[in-house]
Design brief:
Layout (H helix, E strand, L loop, with lengths): L1 E3 L2 H5 L5 E4 L3 E2 L2 H11 L4 H4 L1 H5 L10 H6 L1 H5 L3 E3 L4 E11 L9 E14 L2 E12 L7 E10 L1
Parallel strand pairs: 1-4
Antiparallel strand pairs: 2-6, 3-6, 5-8, 6-7, 7-8
Length: 150
């Protein structure tokens, strides 16, 4: 865990890779719960037999499930002290280069792209790369935008 004492110290780290979070295993139960929450019950996620014979050899996680795990995957990468809150402001860009097969382990690496002044505080842009254990291609690359209020 990288700790920044304040927003100025955090902003000074722009351009740096901040580190990696811990590994998280993608389970079939997690995929099923996400399918129920979103209504996306496509067979490549839920039909174990059909998915085993399909293009990925097993069920795969929804791309949006992988994206939604970013808060979990980055929570142990860094912290900024002195903030009243940090609010998800959106995404600039998202790609899903590689499907995540059930049973895979994923983790996130974070690069701080920039920190700029915003009307309510500061705004950070971080490039989050979700890696799959043993796979050279990432599962997801996303630029997250966060409003930081001190």
């Amino acid at each position: 865990m990288r700790t920044f004492e304040n927003l100025d110290e955090f902003a000074a780290a722009a351009g740096e890779h901040l580190g990696f979070g811990g590994w998280h295993e993608i389970t079939q139960e997690e995929i099923g719960l996400f399918a129920d929450a979103t209504g996306d019950h496509q067979w490549i996620h839920l039909d174990l037999e059909k998915a085993a014979a399909g293009p990925f050899g097993a069920p795969v996680a929804h791309g949006y499930l992988t994206l939604s795990l970013i808060p979990l995957l980055v929570r142990d990468v860094y912290t900024v002290r002195g903030l009243r809150m940090a609010v998800n402001y959106g995404l600039n860009k998202v790609r899903f280069p590689t499907p995540v097969v059930v049973g895979s382990r994923v983790r996130a690496g974070v690069e701080l792209v920039e920190v700029t002044a915003a009307a309510q505080g500061s705004q950070s842009v971080a490039r989050v790369t979700v890696e799959i254990d043993g796979n050279p291609k990432p599962a997801c690359v996303a630029e997250t935008v966060t409003l930081l209020i001190a």
